[in-house]
């Protein structure tokens, strides 16, 4: 068991090292993408700064809470893109029969598929989140630990949600647009405080489109530590991961090879 | 002269028909916007609380403003990507020897794609906003004036977008300048909220820049219309159109000189 665990760890870290090396090969492009995301995320923070300059407090949320929310979201999204970059491409891989490559190899196809690519756009976010957290929010050991835990849980939930929605392609065929829209919807909801929503929508953003679990919940946790919120966050990450694995394996039974010849250079 | 313009009218017409080849895709591409509109309705409701308005804007005005602002912004197609790709790949050479102006060809296509996008956004987004906050506070007399302001806004935007695309003649990657300009347009152009809601200092800065005449100006005109306001807007838009149009023409003239074609 321990040997198997070590083998998996070596496999996963080797892939991450290769992906990082591939990304850094084109340095100018990498820097450009990172700067681009800094500008993009920075503009949204600028919007919130302008907004709260007028509004001051919105249902208990102030500018500090929003900055914390954005720091966590961007870290979570960035980690998910860096470590499981293929999650958002699952629907495409299924539709084009490109899962065959992973099925023919001895490693678990889901994990192998997830880690075999890195999403460049998220790398800027992975850097932006910590920079914002360190420069614009109060930094303590407790908050830093919660920040990192929340980022990791958020990354797991993002990747899991990508797998769940991407797996719809097993049943629906071409589900690329649906999967993308669902993910963008979840991402969108994650960037706004849950306090502005009521009723059924609030239930949705904590369950079906778990944006609030990735954004608002950690922001609340970092404002005022509550063991129950931490347990809920960890539990949600585990639950979504299990559901993602289950849905993927269920869908894989329906998968038919496209007999597509693929070549991969690593 | 008329025959010349009929060519571009034909390009516009074909582009519109192409966009309508997949109507469901046009509608589905708006799902993201519908979510944004819903979220911002909740955000403004929570912000207003018991107040009727903020800086003179009621909830209904804020949301109808946002719908038109988003419609204008999203229908200003990223023609810079197409031009950038053509310049880098050399395909521009195939277009230059055609009996149509390169820039006017893209302008006609830009308007065609933008017109369809704007129409779909206004219909689908309008239905949602109407359901959320009530009917639009727009008077019929304002409609032609607003449409003209939107058309001029699109023309200015085309000059900016195409100009960024032509930077491909000299730069490795024009996406950086594009991103910066687009995000400045979002924030300082009043995309997400009217400029009056900005803090005073930022509002002052925004009023000196051209971006407000692209988005904020036409959107505000739809809410608070007067012939004097319309004429003032057109005047400012005309000034910036002259500036960006000149820059675009100069970039194009310099850029085309960089093209060398090898026959074979």
In short:
The complex is a heterodimer of chains A (266) and B (264). Chain A is mainly α and 266 residues long.
Can you put this structure into words, describing what you see?
The complex is a heterodimer of chains A (266) and B (264). Chain A is mainly α and 266 residues long. Helices cover 74% and strands 0% of the residues of chain A. Helices cover 73% and strands 2% of the residues of chain B. The longest helix of chain B has 32 residues. A two-stranded antiparallel sheet of chain B has the order 1-2. In chain B, α1 crosses α7, α8 runs antiparallel to α11 and α8 packs parallel to α12. The chains are: A mainly alpha (266), B mainly alpha (264). Chains A and B meet through α2 and α10 of A and α3 and α9 of B.
Topology:
The complex is a heterodimer of chains A (266) and B (264).
Chain A: H1 2-25, H2 27-55, H3 63-83, H4 90-95, H5 100-103, H6 109-115, H7 120-136, H8 141-166, H9 169-172, H10 176-190, H11 199-205, H12 211-214, H13 216-223, H14 227-252
Helix pairs in contact in A: 2-3, 2-7, 3-7, 3-8, 3-13, 8-10, 8-14
Chain B: H1 2-19, H2 23-28, H3 31-48, E1 53-54, E2 57-58, H4 59-74, H5 79-89, H6 92-96, H7 102-133, H8 142-166, H9 175-188, H10 200-208, H11 216-223, H12 227-257
Helix pairs in contact in B: 1-7, 3-4, 3-7, 4-7, 4-11, 5-8, 7-8, 8-11, 8-12
Kindly estimate the percentage of residues of chain A that lie in beta strands according to DSSP: under 5%
Give the chain pair forming the largest contact, with residue counts.
Answer: A-B, 29 and 29 residues
**Main β-sheet of chain B: number of strands, strand sense, barrel status?**
2 strands, antiparallel
Low-confidence runs of chain B (pLDDT<50, min 5 residues)? Answer: none
The coarse overall form of chain A would be globular
Query: What is the rounded distance between the termini of chain A?
Result: 28 Å
The biggest sheet of chain A, with number of strands, parallel, antiparallel or mixed sense and barrel status, is: none
Strand elements of chain B, count: 2
Radius of gyration of chain B (CA) equals: 20 Å
What is the helical fraction of chain A, as a range of percent?
over 70%
**Strand percentage of chain B:** under 5%
Radius of gyration of chain A: 19 Å
| Assembly state | heterodimer
**From N to C, what is the helix and strand string of chain A?**
HHHHHHHHHHHHHH
The shape of chain B is globular
**Count of extended strands of chain A:** 0
Q: Which class do the helix and strand fractions of chain B yield?
A: mainly alpha
Poorly predicted residue ranges of chain A: none
């Amino acid at each position: 068991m321990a040997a198997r665990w070590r083998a998996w760890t070596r496999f996963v870290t080797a892939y991450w090292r290769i992906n990082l090396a591939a990304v850094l090969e084109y340095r100018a492009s990498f820097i450009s993408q990172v700067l681009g995301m800094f500008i993009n995320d920075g503009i949204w923070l600028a919007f919130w700064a302008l907004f709260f300059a007028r509004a001051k407090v919105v249902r208990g949320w102030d500018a500090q809470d929003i900055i914390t929310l954005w720091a966590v979201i961007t870290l979570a999204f960035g980690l998910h893109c860096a470590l499981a970059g293929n999650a958002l491409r699952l629907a495409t891989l299924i539709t084009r029969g490109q899962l065959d490559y992973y099925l023919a190899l001895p490693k678990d196809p889901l994990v192998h598929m997830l880690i075999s690519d890195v999403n460049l756009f998220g790398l800027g976010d992975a850097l932006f989140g910590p920079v914002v957290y360190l420069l614009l929010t109060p930094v303590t050991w407790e908050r830093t630990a919660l920040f990192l835990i929340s980022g990791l849980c958020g990354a797991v939930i993002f990747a899991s949600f990508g797998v769940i929605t991407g797996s719809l392609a097993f049943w629906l065929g071409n589900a690329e647009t649906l999967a993308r829209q669902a993910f963008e919807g979840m991402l969108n909801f994650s960037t706004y405080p849950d306090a502005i929503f009521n009723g059924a929508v609030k239930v949705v953003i904590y369950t079906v489109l778990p944006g609030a679990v990735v954004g608002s919940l950690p922001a609340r946790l970092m404002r005022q530590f509550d063991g129950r919120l931490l347990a809920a966050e960890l539990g949600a990450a585990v639950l979504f991961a299990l559901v993602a694995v289950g849905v993927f394996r269920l869908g894989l039974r329906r998968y038919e090879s496209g007999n597509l010849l693929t070549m991969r250079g690593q | 002269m008329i025959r010349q313009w009929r060519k571009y009218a034909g390009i516009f017409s074909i582009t519109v028909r192409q966009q309508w080849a997949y109507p469901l895709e046009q509608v589905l591409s708006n799902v993201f916007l519908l979510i944004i509109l819903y979220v911002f309705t909740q955000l403004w409701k929570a912000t207003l609380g018991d107040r009727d308005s903020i800086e003179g804007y009621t909830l209904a005005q804020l949301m109808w403003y946002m719908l038109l602002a988003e419609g204008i912004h999203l229908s200003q197609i990223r023609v810079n990507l197409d031009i950038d790709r053509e310049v880098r790949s050399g395909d521009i050479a195939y277009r230059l020897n055609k009996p149509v102006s390169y820039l006017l060809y893209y302008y006609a296509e830009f308007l065609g794609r933008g017109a369809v996008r704007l129409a779909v956004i206004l219909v689908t987004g309008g239905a949602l906003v109407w359901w959320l906050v009530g009917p639009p506070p727009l008077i019929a007399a304002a409609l032609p004036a607003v449409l003209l302001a939107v058309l001029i806004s699109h023309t200015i935007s085309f000059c900016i977008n195409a100009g960024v695309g032509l930077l491909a003649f000299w730069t490795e990657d024009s996406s950086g300048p594009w991103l910066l300009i687009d995000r400045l347009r979002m924030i300082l152009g009043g995309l997400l909220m009217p400029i009056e809601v900005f803090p005073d200092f930022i509002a002052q800065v925004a009023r000196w820049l051209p971006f407000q005449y692209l988005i904020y100006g036409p959107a505000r005109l739809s809410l608070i219309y007067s012939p004097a306001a319309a004429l003032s807007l057109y005047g400012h838009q005309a000034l910036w159109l002259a500036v960006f149009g000149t820059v675009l023409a100069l970039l194009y003239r310099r850029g085309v000189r960089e093209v060398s074609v090898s026959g074979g």
